[in-house]
C-alpha cells in the first residue's frame, strides 16, 4: 500500500520512507480504532465505579488520539499521506470491541485487551524501524508503546486487588 510520496528534503531514501510509511499505516489505524473504543467505553460504562472509569476511559481516548496524531504526522513528514479515514480502519490490529460490555469490569477487560493489542502493534515495529535506519520513527513508536503501556496499567488496576 505504498502511499503517494510528496517531495521532502528529510534525507531518508524514498524506498525507506515508503517502507516506513507503509508499516506505520496499520499502527495509525489501530490507534484511531483504540481512541474510538475508549470513547465507546467512556460513553457507555455503568456501575459503581462509573465516575472513575468514565474519566479514565476519556483519558485513554485522548492518549490514543494524541498518539495517532504523532504517527500520522510522521507519515506525512516522510512524504506520505496519512490514511486515517473510516475506510482505512480495516488495517487496525484490534479485536472487535464486544457489544455486550456494559458494566465497569466488562469495559475494563475489553479496553485492557485493546490497549495491549495496540501496544503490541507499536512495539513490534520498533526494531524494524531501527533496522531500516529510521531511529526517529523507532523512538516515536517507543513513546507510543510507553504511553499505551502506562494506560494499560491504569486500566488493569481496576481489575486487580
Q: Can you walk through the features of this model?
A:
There is one protein chain. Helix 1 runs antiparallel to helix 3 and helix 3 runs antiparallel to helix 4. This protein has a single domain, classed as Ferritin. The chain is mostly helical and 161 residues long. Helix content is 68%, strand content 0%.
Number of strands: 0
Largest sheet: none
Counted up, domains total 1
Mean pLDDT: 95
Shape, principal axes of CA atoms: elongated
Which stretches of 5+ consecutive residues score pLDDT under 50? none
What structural class do helix, strand and pairing data support?
A: mainly alpha
Tell me the quaternary state.
Answer: single chain
The CATH architecture term is: Up-down Bundle
User: What order do the SSEs take from the amino end to the carboxyl end, as H and E?
Assistant: HHHH
Radius of gyration: 17 Å
Question: Would you identify the CATH H-level superfamily?
Answer: Ferritin, core subunit, four-helix bundle
Helix content: 55-70%
Count of helical regions? 4
Amino acid at each position: 500500500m505504498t502511499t503517494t510520496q510528496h517531495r521532502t528534503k528529510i534525507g531518508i531514501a524514498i524506498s525507506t520512507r515508503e517502507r516506513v510509511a507503509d508499516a506505520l499505516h496499520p499502527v495509525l489505524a489501530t490507534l484511531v480504532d483504540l481512541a474510538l473504543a475508549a470513547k465507546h467505553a467512556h460513553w457507555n460504562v455503568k456501575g459503581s465505579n462509573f465516575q472513575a472509569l468514565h474519566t479514565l476511559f476519556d483519558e485513554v481516548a485522548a492518549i490514543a488520539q494524541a498518539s495517532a496524531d504523532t504517527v500520522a504526522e510522521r507519515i506525512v513528514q516522510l512524504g506520505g499521506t496519512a490514511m486515517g479515514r473510516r475506510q482505512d480502519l480495516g488495517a487496525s490490529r484490534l479485536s472487535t470491541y464486544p457489544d455486550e460490555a456494559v458494566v465497569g469490569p466488562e469495559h475494563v477487560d475489553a479496553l485492557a485487551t485493546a490497549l495491549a493489542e495496540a501496544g503490541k502493534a507499536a512495539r513490534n515495529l520498533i526494531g524494524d524501524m531501527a533496522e531500516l535506519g529510521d531511529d526517529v520513527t523507532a523512538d516515536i513508536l517507543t513513546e507510543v508503546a510507553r504511553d499505551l503501556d502506562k494506560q494499560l496499567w491504569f486500566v488493569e488496576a481496576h481489575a486487580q486487588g
